[in-house]
Amino acid sequence: MEKLSNEEFEKLPKKLTSRSHPVRDWLMQMEVGESFRVPAKEWKWKSATPSHLCRAVEKQTSRRFECYKLLDGAGWAIRRTA
């Protein structure tokens, strides 16, 4: 075990202990203007796309996202706008 300073703790990538999806965790940690890509091979939900999670987070918070499907079918691109 190792003792951490407050700055070190804040820099660690982390999530609350729950059953949330990794994409939702990324959405909650994004800063305005940041973006990321979700590869189709990593998305396992049959009934929804990452835009489903974007809309759910938007309803629960003041964050806003743009979610695009990539034309080559390789996945989705998400950008935080607010």
Describe the structure.
It is a single chain. The chain has helices at 6-11, 22-29, 50-60, and strands at residues 35-39, 65-69, 75-80. The protein has 82 residues and is α+β, with helices and mostly antiparallel strands. The chain has one domain (21-80). A three-stranded antiparallel beta sheet has the order 1-3-2, with helices on one face.
List the helices and strands and how they pair.
Blueprint: H1 6-11, H2 22-29, E1 35-39, H3 50-60, E2 65-69, E3 75-80
Antiparallel strand pairs: 1-3, 2-3
What radius of gyration results from the CA coordinates?
A: 14 Å
User: Which sheet architecture does the biggest sheet show?
Assistant: 3 strands, antiparallel
Average pLDDT confidence is 88
Q: Structural class from helices and strands?
A: alpha+beta
The total beta strand count reads: 3
Residue share in helix: 25-40%
Quickly count the domains.
Answer: 1
Strand order of the largest sheet: 1-3-2
Order of helices and strands: HHEHEE
- Number of helical stretches of at least 4 residues: 3
General form: globular
Spatial gap, N to C terminus? 38 Å
Strand content: 15-25%
Low-confidence stretches: none
